[in-house]
Design goal:
Length: 550
């Protein structure tokens, strides 16, 4: 392995994922993807191993390999095929996150040939149409490309598909791994079936088209790499990237003192009862290996905060990747030295038909908080205090009288970052398992019958300490039409913790101000009908403080 060449390939493969993301963002219809960037793109080798991903959403990227694996195992993908899925129990996360996977094909005179310049090598780049293959050359994928995007609605009982539910069937249309494109042709029957079960058909159709277009971009760029360097070398260095990330992770684990580190934290409730929901973890470090055991976590619950195994593995992937100093290839190698135990039938590995909409966005954050609390015992100089620990998922849907059509608005709202051992936390930031942006006021008001009345930093909501936690935000939205409003949020009962003597942050809160001025306090998880002129006010938690003020 040539170290310089390894860095070149890392940049090449990462740039493919990043360019896929740019294509997806620019061509998407919904503000949730175009403005908030609630999407992720990744590149996989011919075996289905993750070799590169863009700096997109951590909660997507650590779990996407399971979706790709499910697509490969359940669908025999041929040239020009695209598989679509969102089933949380088949590699997905929650139903609004829709993943598309495509194999990348090309014909070579032997997959070790260098390029096409001056010799017969690859006869075609790759797109969603079948390449010309000789009868004696069975099609073998060279790579796989995939992207995942959060659709602002995927059907279900409430607009936005993130409301109260007691079973997954209430959360939207559930898509197992199936072909949406066959031989380069969109399967209109399947596509129309999906669009008939979601709100905002035009917006959904545009977002799906953007996802398919991003796959084409990724496939073409990968074939340019193969044309230039030859598939043998490109494939070899894809494997080297995985091995290199694994070595870096092992080296990081070896630097952590051997021992057992335990912690627990709690979700407020599941929205169906008032009982707190326990997340427990036991991290065992032995040399270059780690075992992360969630035994003792609460059984799966009736409300929509259950996490599937892919989410739990994704949270572990994220936390341990953050421990690696410097820039590391975001590949499958990071998780190789780590064994994750997530008992079936629990809040961290739910079984069907448990509802899971909040597991992806709320429980994932609490898993991260619990992991960091445990690791703070081992490497206190590296671990920050708890950040806001929630994504404050707000959905509003109804009929848009201006445009004469239904609408579904979805947004996660930023909060405070936990203070670090050597610096204050950031205010009004999306932290940990989310890496999205806010929806700009202008874009939101243009796209939906809503008006932003206030958007400000929630001063003083960060925890005190030698280093203060970041402050949350206040977001006040006025309804310009009757609508269904749902919130899926946490840290309303259990405040984000401080570390090393730092104080906890302020908890979040929400209220409804009716058109006549009457105020009503709202819980962290609710779904209500509100009249035109009502205002929804969300105040998000801050981050915990770090270090004693003395």
């Amino acid at each position: 392995m040539d170290s310089i060449k390894l860095e070149i390939y890392r940049s090449l493969y990462t740039s493919v994922a990043e360019e896929m993301g740019v294509s997806l963002r620019r061509t998407a219809f919904s503000p949730n993807i175009k403005e908030r960037r609630d999407y992720s793109c990744a590149v996989f080798d011919r075996r289905g191993r993750l070799i590169a991903q863009g700096d997109h959403m951590p909660v997507h990227l650590g779990s996407m390999p399971m979706s790709v694996r499910a697509a490969i195992e359940r669908c025999e993908m041929r040239p020009g095929d695209v598989v679509i899925l969102n089933d949380p129990y088949a590699g997905g996360t929650h139903l609004p996150d829709v993943t598309v996977v495509a194999p990348v094909y090309g014909k070579t005179r032997g997959q070790g040939d260098k390029g096409t310049r001056g010799q017969e090598g690859l006869q075609r780049r790759v797109s969603l149409s079948p390449p010309l293959l000789a009868p004696s050359s069975p099609p073998l994928p060279l790579f796989f490309v995939a992207n995942r995007a959060h659709h602002a609605d995927i059907g279900g009982a409430t607009p936005g598909s993130m409301g109260s539910a007691t079973e997954i069937y209430q959360e939207g249309i559930r898509i197992p791994p199936i072909r949406i494109v066959r031989g380069g042709e969109l399967d209109r029957d399947v596509f129309n079936l999906l669009l008939a079960n979601v709100r905002g058909r035009e917006e959904r159709e545009g977002d799906f088209a953007a996802q398919l277009g991003a796959l084409r971009v990724g496939g073409e760029r990968l074939m340019e790499i193969v044309e230039r360097y030859g598939f043998k070398e490109a494939d070899e260095y894809a494997s080297h990237l995985v091995d290199y990330a694994s070595r870096l992770m092992r080296r990081t684990l070896a630097a952590i003192p051997d021992g057992v580190y335990e912690a627990e934290d709690f979700l407020d409730d599941d929205g169906e009862s008032n009982n707190p929901v326990r997340i427990a973890v036991r991290i065992e470090i032995r040399g270059e290996q780690a075992k992360v055991d969630f035994t003792g976590s609460a059984p799966q619950v009736n409300g929509p905060i259950n996490a599937v195994e892919a989410i739990t593995v994704s949270a572990v992937y994220y936390v341990f990747r953050c421990l690696i100093a410097g820039d590391v290839p975001a590949s499958a190698g990071i998780i190789e030295p780590i064994r994750v135990i997530a008992p079936s039938g629990t809040i961290v590995n739910a079984l069907p038909p448990a509802p899971v909409a909040g597991g992806n966005v709320e429980t994932s954050q609490r898993i991260v908080d619990t992991l960091l609390k445990a690791l703070a015992q081992a490497v206190p100089d590296l671990i920050p205090a708890a950040s806001q620990g929630t994504m404050n998922n707000l959905t509003i849907g109804g009929w848009d009288n201006r445009r004469g059509r239904e609408f579904a608005y979805y947004e996660t709202i930023a909060g405070g970052m936990g203070a670090r051992p050597s610096a204050d936390g950031l205010s009004a930031a999306h932290t940990h398992m989310t890496n999205s942006l806010n929806t700009p006021v202008e874009a939101l008001e243009y796209a939906y019958p809503l008006r932003i009345r206030r958007y400000a930093i929630r001063r003083g909501s960060g925890g005190k300490g030698r280093h203060r936690g970041g402050d949350g935000v206040i977001r006040e939205i006025e309804l310009l039409t009757d609508a269904r409003v749902s919130l899926l949020a946490d840290r309303r009962k259990f405040a984000p913790y401080g570390l090393n003597g730092g104080g906890p942050a302020k908890k979040g809160q929400a209220e409804l101000i009716e058109a006549g001025g009457r105020k009503r306090k709202l819980p962290g998880k609710f779904s209500i009908r509100a009249k035109r002129g009502a205002r929804v006010v969300i105040e998000t938690p801050g981050g915990g403080g770090c270090g004693s003020e003395d």
